[in-house]
# Entry
Amino acid sequence: MNSKIPATVVTGFLGAGKTTLIRHMLENAGGKRIALIINEFGDLGVDGGILKGCGIEGCAEDDVMELSNGCICCTVADDFIPTMQKLLDRPNAPDHIVIETSGLALPQPLVRAFNWPEISTRVTVDGVVTVVDGKAVSEGRFAHDVAAVDAQRAQDDNLDHETPLSELFADQVACADMIVVNKADLLGEDDAAALVSKLKSDSRDGVQVVTSVMGALPVDVLLGQGIGAEGDMDARHEVHHHHDDDHHDDHDDDHHHHDHDHDAFESFVVSRDEITDPAAFAEQLAKVIRDHDILRLKGFAAVTGKPMRLTLQAVGPRVDSYFDRPFGADPRETRLVVIGQSGLNRDAIEQALSA
Ligand SMILES: Nc1nc2c(ncn2[C@@H]2O[C@H](COP(=O)(O)OP(=O)(O)OP(=O)(O)O)[C@@H](O)[C@H]2O)c(=O)[nH]1
# Structure
């Protein structure tokens, strides 16, 4: 198994809801030590300020670090790599690193930076999460406040001012391992479903597309994708190379507060008899996951004739399994936790997993 620290890259246009999603994740980290790196530009440290002042228990001030020189592809050596090294050299290294890119940044140069030898043996990209403004995308605007995004671009001479937002958006989708269609509360159910299926067909095979309100996704769904994106850049072409900067609009059009925001997701446990063939079972799981749009499936299995417990982890249709330890005194059981967006067909899934 690999002992690199996983890092999740969160990308998406200005105002899509990245900060909101990260805040929710930190509030629900369940004891996981998450360090945050923010790629700021222009309005220095606005998000850093918001998140540092978060008052979330277990969120220490120095767990938030800022890259203050803007464009990652230009400042990798001077800024990003040293910041990562500082974080990794701490005696209390984090369990997970989350990097929020600024509104116009493309994720590709950042992901590629993980191949630099200074850090490549110590961290890996767990996954790229692209947050989209569901309402704006479904209306073909791509960002809530297009004027603010244009102002953000205009501020920087290095920026490509010509590329339509639709193409920058396509770049973000091409790099994603998970696409979060945020602001689902502003979309009708049909529009949300149509957008999800369009994004599924526009993205690479196996990319998960989920809807959210106020970025409220279970931490288990966001983190732990185990992709290793830096090793797989060929699949994630960017169409453009540009520079990014950041500017914060202060639209404040949302005052909803969802105290109980996990309703959108559900999870349940399925138990079954011993299995006989781990490889065949992994295939069976992959099929059930595809057929039922399951986001995560994890647990362990008893394999006939084996004293060791088989651990199973699936993110989308990719299933990993390995024997982790003897059952010992524990009952020889096969138990799987299924996680997905609400509306899973529990009976059918139970049946398919028990077959
Ligand atoms: N209605 C609605 N508003 C949302 C949702 N998620 C975020 N917002 C609002 O959208 C605005 C932008 O959210 P942020 O989280 O700051 O977006 P961001 O992507 O971090 O934006 P920048 O940091 O400025 O690039 C805020 O006013 C949020 O309260 C949502 O699901 N529904």
